[in-house]
Design goal:
The complex is a heterodimer. Chain A has five helices and three strands; from the N terminus they run H-H-H-E-H-E-E-H. Chain A is mainly alpha-helical. Classes of the chains: A mainly alpha, B mainly alpha.
Chain lengths: 168, 97
């Protein structure tokens, strides 16, 4: 979007740190219960601070409600993907027709791109084969499987508040 | 049997079915990349169902959350290793004459 003012980076880093600390604290609570909460709080904060300090490049905080929505989409796609490939494994005539397709990435390097590359392998019919510069080589199990990928890329962009470029 | 036992039994059986399907796909699919499809996706769904089955009978919310964390860590490991194996398979295929 042209003319949009640059966001202050320190604020993004603080927000990301808070989100990471919350996630770490939840894991701590799950592992150890509330008995040692204060230890967990200290180390969640320290871990998140170290992350925010050490992560190179831009940091993209996620949006909590959109994360929930993304998670629901992801669970649905996981179920569909698992059923799809299980069915193909059982059918005697083996209905697969593998091909390699390319996906141009506009998501920036860092967490947004990592999330996309990871999720591509778990949604129906696609597998991240190789990431080279701004192109993701995707292995598609059926000819039509890769058509949903631009939408998936937009969905990951929405999670991190990144607008897609014009015409994609 | 309580409804929890029934629900978790059904989920466990379904989950194991998907693991079986993944193994079958690994044996039947023709090349390394296609086999990875079978493994990553069925393991994701299989582990999701097994964790859900155990979460249903968990005695506390803490254990259920922990099972969710187990699932997330499991699929993270599976998708990353699938990507690495796929990259290696593709490169070694290109290197062939």
């Amino acid at each position: 979007m042209p003319g949009k003012p640059a966001k202050p980076r320190a604020r993004e880093r603080m927000l990301w740190m808070l989100q990471t600390a919350t996630a770490l604290l939840i894991v701590w609570l799950a592992l150890d219960g509330t008995g040692t909460l204060w230890v967990g709080a200290i180390f969640a904060a320290l871990g998140a601070a170290a992350g925010a300090w050490l992560v190179p490049g831009e940091i993209y905080p996620w949006r909590p409600l959109r994360l929930l929505l993304f998670f629901l989409y992801f669970v649905r796609d996981s179920v569909l993907g698992g059923m799809d490939v299980a069915w193909r494994a059982f059918v005697p005539r083996l209905p697969i027709q593998p091909s390699l397709v390319e996906l141009k990435l506009w998501l920036p390097p860092g967490l947004p791109r990592t999330v996309l590359v990871a999720v591509v392998s778990l949604v129906p019919g696609t597998l991240s084969a190789e990431l080279a510069d701004d192109t993701l080589h995707v292995h598609a199990l059926t000819p039509g499987a890769a058509t949903s990928l631009p939408a998936l890329q937009r969905r990951v962009g929405r999670l991190f508040s990144i607008d897609p470029p014009e015409g994609s | 049997m309580s409804w929890q036992d029934w629900a978790s039994g059904v989920l466990l059986l379904l989950g194991c079915g998907f693991y079986l399907a993944g193994t079958l796909g690994m044996l039947r699919f023709p090349d390394a990349l296609s086999r990875l499809h079978a493994l990553t996706k069925t393991d994701n769904l299989g582990l999701m169902l097994v964790c859900a089955a155990l979460a249903v009978r968990a005695e506390s919310l803490r254990i259920a959350t922990l099972l969710g964390v187990v699932w997330l860590l499991g699929i993270t490991a599976s998708t990353v290793s699938a990507h690495l194996i796929a990259r290696y398979a593709r490169r070694s295929k290109e290197a062939e004459p």
